[in-house]
Protein: 3-phosphoshikimate 1-carboxyvinyltransferase
Amino acid sequence: MNYFINQYKISTNQEICSIKLPSSKSESNRLLIMNALSDGKIAIDNLSSARDTQTLIRLLKNEKELDKFDVLDAGTAMRFLTAYFGVATKKEVVLTGTDRMQKRPIGILVNALKSIGAEISYENEEGYPPLRIKPFQKQISSEISIPGNISSQYISALLMIAPSLPQGLEINIEPPVFSKPYIDMTLGLMQLSGIQFAQNDDEIIIKPQSYQKSTQSVESDWSASSYWFSIIAQSEIGKKVLLKGLKSKSFQGDNVIKEISANFGVSYKFEKTGLLLEKISPSENSLLQLDFKKCPDLAQTVLPCAAALKIDLEMTGLESLRIKETDRISALQNELSKFNCKLTEPEKGIWKLDSSNFTPKEGIEIETYEDHRMAMGFAPLALKTGIQIKEIEVVNKSYPSFWKDLESFGFELIEQ
Ligand SMILES: O=C(O)C1=C[C@@H](OP(=O)(O)O)[C@@H](O)[C@H](O)C1
Ligand SMILES: C=C(OP(=O)(O)O)C(=O)O
Structure:
């Protein structure tokens, strides 16, 4: 199904719209794996409604009955379950996912697990899911060296299983390290669940130990909040929104969206129930330099937003976007070009967005490439002109109530 989103109608109602964001799928999926590794010692409040989390809940709940586990398009579920089954399954299992998941690399994680004694083989193409995983027999090494520049999810997966291994693990992450806040999130949540570790630079040492009984509460999702920063950035001065459940102290690195959006004239204030955003000034910069190395999921929010505000961007840290839900670089290039904006890589690793010719044309059709963030990142451009978003169900991966929330803010959505 597609949606035509009409220009948002300026409301005369002065009440501040309040949005209940989904909980973080990253935090939820880590806590679910830690809970499974600890035989249910971790009680989790406020698990995410995201499909990625609901899929993991379902698979873990039916672990005893299933032989084949389909994570659909959930990257964290794929990577975390590979490590979990690698050391914890009692029977042979197959782990698979969507066609796209079968093109997202996993060889680095599989090699690391095999080097400590896991028995994992590829069903089809070497280095990619589906995987066949046999019960773990014996730990043959406790040292792992792993590249940090492909996906931090491999490292998070290994960290979570480390305490359960007879010899623990010493993980050396080879720089450069991408998506580092996600590694810190894993360690932070493990620490809250009673795990101790030593860390020097890029080496992390975890001795054998048990997860402790605890109750953890999942914060709202900062990546999901980013679409609201973009909406407020593109609204008239004085427009506000309250995003419930966001906290000033967070494990989520995507909370850097609040600093990035200051460049777009958006202010924020933490209130008792969440975060209040307000458009306070026009955006003054005509060129911004941004590094997405620590926050790759924000790229699809920030680029369309900057384009609409006619701010040029010079960017680094976009490398990992090519192996996510889709090749996000190509997807952004295609869709931004529909607004006469150009995304280029003039020098290896340095990206430029030329927003100077941004032209909103009524009815532009946005392809979403089976990627939730393409739909949500481009939807705020409906503030400039009516646009059509294709395959709207994609948002269910991380933010199932996205369209309903847009409507409650004042957007008009017409089914096509
Ligand atoms: O660990 C996590 O929860 C995530 C890590 C990031 O992936 P990479 O480490 O592959 O960049 C991020 O893009 C993804 O949405 C969630
Ligand atoms: C990249 C993402 O998720 P995953 O890698 O877990 O599929 C995302 O949510 O943007």
User: Anything to note?
Assistant: The chain has a mean pLDDT of 96. The first helix runs from residue 25 to 37.
